[in-house]
């Protein structure tokens, strides 16, 4: 799998299968677990948070460099995703993203006044795309039997 288009597709397919990662501003040491919602056609991730979180307050009036880190050996994706994070007021997008998980965090549901939508415009993603946990075990066993280094997949930086 070396074609850039195939790597982009594998990245999005695996990212769609994950439901969370660690999100933070690039110049901050504090990263927090956040559920992401993918928008592959636009090259964006979306997040639903509360207006009073440190992250949302840090974005007030500005777009900032941010990172979203995802790791899942079962899905075979490890990635450091970099881009720009901003506050967005888009009721239609919020309606599109709203789900049972998001509703668990807001007392007044979809119309809670504390809801804040975040848009993450992806610039690059340094990715390790592997065959997943079963393929990893196979490659390790094969390397022990043959003495060859295990083939653990593709390591590439994708541009968006």
From TrEMBL:
It holds the Pfam family Pyrid_ox_like. Residues 9-151 form the General stress protein FMN-binding split barrel domain. It comes from the Bacteria. SUPFAM superfamilies: FMN-binding split barrel (SSF50475). This is Pyridoxamine 5'-phosphate oxidase family protein. It comes from Paracoccus maritimus.
